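Pasting as-is:
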Amino acid sequence: MEGLPFTPPAGADEGGHLGPPPAAFALLAADGVLVGWSREAEALLGYPASQVLGRRATDLLVTSYADRDGSEERRPDQRLRFDGTRSAVADVRHRSGHTVRVAVTLRPLTPALDEDSTGRAPSAVLMAAELGELRWWETRQAMLQGLVTQSPVTLTIYGPGARLLWANASSVRELGGDLTALLGRSMTELFPGDVLTTQHLAPPEDFVRQILETGEPVIDVRFRGRSPADPRRERVWSSSYFRLLDGRGEPVGVCEQSIDVTDHYRAQQRLTLLAEAGARIGATLDPSGTAAELAKIAVPQYADAVLVDVAAEVLEGEEPKPVTAWDLVRVADSDGEPSRVGERVAYAAGSSQAEGLAGGRTTVDAVVAPTRLYVPLIVRGTSLGLVTFVRGDESEPFDDGDRAVAEELASRTAVCIDNARRYRRERSAALMLQRSLLPRSLPELSAVEAASRYLPADSHLGAGGDWFDVIPLSGARVGLVVGDVVGHGLGAAATMGRLRAMVRTLAELDLAPDELLARLNDQVGKDASDQNVRGSDGSGAVGATCVYGIYDPASRTSTWAAAGHLSPAVVQPHGPVSFLRLPPGPPLGVGRLPYEGAEVALAEGSLVVLFTDGLVEARGQGIDVGLGRLATVLGEQRGSSSDLLCAQIVAELVSDHVRDDATLLVVRTHALDARQVAAWELPSDPALVARARAMAAEQLERWGLDDLAFTTELVVSELVTNAIRHASGPIGLRLIRDRSLICEVSDSQHTSPHARYAGNDEEGGRGLFMVAQLTEHWGTRYMPTGKTIWAEQALPVP
């Protein structure tokens, strides 16, 4: 039986991959007999038309599972009804014997077609498609429909010249208009304010042309700007681009796929901002500097302006107190008015600022632009001040996320300001202690003209342990010392004070420099051991360095010893600048190696410069560079006074930011005139005591000191007598007229004399007691060849 000719309905897509799957068509008579069979039906089930025409359609049906309306059918032999369009899923027998699951739609023909050669008139058309392919096609269609109408991802197609060809519903909403009104516009016209934030900085037209020519997709281009639909809010999009081809493989445009990543971008910005704040805020350990760092970080990334106000007592290093609206000082202002920094700030009672300070909470003033966010600086429940973040008319108001960032920034700043306050308080205390332990003024001596400078470190470590001293000694001599305690802070300052006191005590015993350092080293070692036993905080003097010298203006010689310290610089009159070559000695407290002294002759008018390493150390340079610069200044300015020379050295060698304490002691030596010193050598003969008294009286008469003759004769008599009685060999007698009258008697013995109370029945033993009573000072100093007993008397007032 030959069937009627049949052609698929118009519009059916037999080609493209986005079209529906090929449908099988069959025509049925009213009694369910097949009267028409298409090529697609033959391809689907394998039956040629000759094998199915004239048979009932139900002969091919294995099972019908469900109508599209949800009803169940499991009677393959039932008659087909043609009273309306019906759809079902059915299992149909393939010619090869396997079952094909298909989607079936039965649609009546109105009006009916003409009868075929068998006399049957087609009454319905039966359409069938393989179920899997149909479902896949429907899914793709649903996906495409969703992208066009429902997807939050914007899809836009641009042709050559970056002009709009098509956009989905989401993109049309972003563009803020009717699609027909937007077609043909360029990317620049659609988004005039966009800022391209990636490496693709070419104009949009070149950007699209490049993709059309190369076919290389571009992924994740970040744009920042405002969309026409919402021009007040700045947003960020992540866009990707790929080329579209037609059926012939020719490029027809570029598809832009964009996602709004504003929230993600802002979250990333906030994290970056907080990370930067953690690295930069608090680096200066200065409240004002910390506030300025906050302003630099927050503007313009977070706010348009930042104001920071801090309680006055906090700036002075005092403990924070409850802040009132009138206790604040402006320490940072990024609003273009730096002159306001340092001014007092008063907030009216009841204002948002005052309420935020009083309640310790963030307040917002958004009634009028610019928007302001007031965040208190809180530490341990106490407000140190207030930070004001400002956003202008063109910026978005602060939201909850911005508020959290502001509070985190303020919290970090508050901790850093409090740390700076603590540092300032401790540093001030350390400096006060250190300055109180250093000489307030240098003594006026005939032996030297001295000047000094102490420069505390501009460092978060606090004041160091540098010290210096000029110590008057017997015989018109002078002790010169500079030292440096390793470490900073109160502990170093206190240790410096102890060392300076020990050096003075040992110097007054008239010890030689090497012996003085040896005893000082022993004492430092004992202190360190005691601190370890007691669990000290480690602020001892272990590692302290020191250089000590004695200058004798009568002999114009000096002796020196060093404990791990830099050697002094010396400038002899008309001579080159040099540094003393002293035997090396270990720092104090780190060893028990012996210290050695060195003797250096110093002509009258010589310069001696003692210093700590902070003076000659420079960042990135070896210490030899600093020593060279010091030598240059000394060579050029050798004729300046000690005080002026100090100022010139500091100006040349010390920068604005001192990394370590720098201490400088400059002395210019003087010599005693031969007319100020009278010396005799006497044999050890008791008969010469009277002669010694007479020579002393004659010398006092030449000096015009007759008023001191009686006392001096008594002192000479007692000291010479003791020397003859207890020593052997020649005896030295020397009178020195300086700022006082000094009488010295030397012998070859090292025995230690001492004054005592003699009994009533003793004939002797009262000599040194009388000397002590008649003179202002007396003492003993030891030399390799023996000892010298000396006594001083004040000169008569003119």
